[in-house]
Amino acid sequence: MTQKVRVRFAPSPTGPLHIGGVRTALFNYLFAKKHNGTFVLRVEDTDQNRYVEGAEQYIIDALNWCGIPFDEGINKNERFGPYRQSERKHLYKQYADALIASGNAYYAFDTPETLDFHRTDHEAKGKTFIYNWHNRLKLSNSLSLSAEEVKAKLNAGDEYVIRFKSPQDETLHLKDIIRGDIKIDTNILDDKVLFKSDGMPTYHLANIVDDHLMEITHVIRGEEWLPSLALHYQLYKAFGWDAPEFAHLPLILKPTGKGKLSKRDGDKLGFPVFPLQWTDPVTEEISRGYKQDGYFPGAMINFLAFLGWNPGTEQEIFNLDELIATFELERVNKSGARFDPDKIKWFNHHYMQEQNDDELAEAFKKQHSELVDIDVNYIALVVGMIKERATFISDFWELTHFFFTAPNSYEEKDSKKAFKEDTATLMSELKNIIIHIDEFTVEALQRDIKGWITKNNIGFGKVMMPLRLALVGALQGPDVFDIMFMIGKAETVKRIEKAISTI
């Protein structure tokens, strides 16, 4: 690859960044970093009617949290700025005019009422109205009108749009890195509007001009833009510019595998579809985010990488550097990728094991007022013992509460199972053994308690089950000797005495 790779992620600030958009940004980022290139963020905000306050900052914050920040864009290395399309609108008219001058575009003066009439008329006949070669000379445009008529309309201030003149009877041979060679018959293409009557460009013109001026070498975007590929190729050709290489990513499908994943699917099935929590500035409705739900950014990125891509090996766990080294667009699938909310939990569970215990302890302590006076080093030791059972930090309290507070009650079913007629006597004897253990270590506890059980030919379950119940309040938790060591001799004895008197 002789050119320096430059890719762009170009979202619209019409709301929070969907998980599908994050996946698009990720694949652009991985490709750029793989080839020592530049990842550009451009905000496509020409549709001011759909602009949502705060959405642009949300996009930036989301990319930063995910660990895939842009190299160039708004307020950052502004080599080709500005990076908001609304601040570039002065550029586009000259390019639309250049297309008219070269015969690749034309003025169209058709009123909305006229176009509605033709659409309705076609529908009544079971047809679809397409504005192109087969009817353009019958409509009101600079191809069907004389030069004087066109000049008169422009001078009179008549409203117009500028349409691309799609060729007739040609076959386009297009290339897509993911989908291979694509053939398109130009007779089925419509003459897309490039410049609107309000003086603003459409996406088609603006993104081609911006990609060219920003020297974008590869356009990696969602499958929904595949129908626009023919027009975009033709625009590059009409301008006499080299086109970038294109790659269209597969859709992210609902968990059922049918249809595109939406926010409604997340709401219905109980998982977020946005990286960060979002509060709608108008309705104040709050949408969940992966960060606030307790997911690690690395887990989310690892999960998203596998939505449509695979490394060709059995390896599933990748850190970001490994993803960069392994990623290839040629290994992205054409077919849609099913979103599996259980799979991202699986990734998060794995990433939990990789986290630093001290950092987890700090985060855990912030979540629970009961821990405010407890040494964070003690909390870290506890976390290290139980995190293999956790998927989220929010799971910690249920798994560890007995390390910090004595049980207030005992599971009724477990009590009936663990405490028999002779249990109180056995527990009293066990208490005396514990009291007389001088060096209160896990090894000493195991040696003396197991030795006593074996010597007296007592079933292990007859001792260990009620002991666990006394310490935890239920028949669950990590090794009982670890619990005893962590809470200390005095607290262990106290809990056994309480269980004897209560149960």
Automatic annotation (TrEMBL):
CDD domains: GluRS_core
Motif 'KMSKS' region mapped to chain: 260-264
UniProt superkingdom: Bacteria
Entry GO CC: cytosol
Record carries keyword Cell membrane: no
GO molecular function terms attached to this record: ATP binding; glutamate-tRNA ligase activity; tRNA binding; zinc ion binding
Motif window: 'HIGH' region: 11-21
Protein name: Glutamate--tRNA ligase
Alphabetized Gene3D superfamilies for the sequence: 1.10.10.350, Glutamyl-trna Synthetase, Domain 2, Glutamyl-tRNA Synthetase, Domain 3, HUPs
